[in-house]
Amino acid sequence: MLTLLVRFVLGPLVRVLYRPKVEGVENIPGDGPVLLASNHRAALDTGVITFTTPRQVRFLGKAEYFTGKGLKGRFIAKSLDALGYIPVERGNAQAGLAALEAGRKVLTDGGVFAIYPEGTRSLDGRLHRGHTGVAALALSTGAKVVPVALFGTEGIQPNGAKIPRPAKIRVRFGEPLDFSRYEGQDSSSAIRRSVTDEIMYAILELSGQEYVDTYHKRPDEKAS
Questions:
Q1: pLDDT tens digits along 144-164
Q2: In the chain, what is the straight-line distance between the N-terminal and C-terminal CA atoms, in Å?
Q3: What range(s) does the Phospholipid/glycerol acyltransferase domain occupy (predicted)?
Q4: What are φ and ψ of residue 173, in 5° steps?
Q5: DSSP summary character for residue 166
Q6: Beta strand 144-151 with 170-173: parallel, antiparallel or unpaired?
Q7: 3-class secondary structure, 78
Q8: E strand or H helix at 112, and its extent?
């Protein structure tokens, strides 16, 4: 019931309130495994992608969001599941492998999985170097990769704002990328790096952001 509520009630309501401009949605294949690779501007990017993509999308979500107790905790967990989140632990190499496996399962089942190759949202507005997990998923599953550029989502809930605000939002889906030419080579780190760079360049072309060839550190990493 919550899934139906999110997709057919909450989704249209959000589209009416924010009127996001969506370009290139026809580039998303109507069936088969699809990997959406997006830039990351704000915490609410996941919701924007969910409500502007015609197919149900699955994302990774922090496991602790699903472990709340009582009626409220169960409701939050069910709501996140309806939004497409998959609970995963974070913070170590084993967690990273579990995250990739969760995405791989969605894709091998013929679904749509979304990932932010930068690993965290951009705090300076620039597009940073992509992690190779996006390539590992594409190469091991044969999924088409659709690059995505988000614009204006950082204005929905700026730092310090507790309630989402009106903002001009634009979502641009690029043409699907096919990496079948590398079939059977997903164990090559050089191939994974090359594929990741090609995906990041496609996102760059769509978004027009300044590119930085270094990984973006997470906020908690900067504080340590």
A1: 999 999 999 888 776 666 667
A2: 43
A3: 34-153
A4: -100, 130
A5: -
A6: antiparallel
A7: helix
A8: strand 112-115
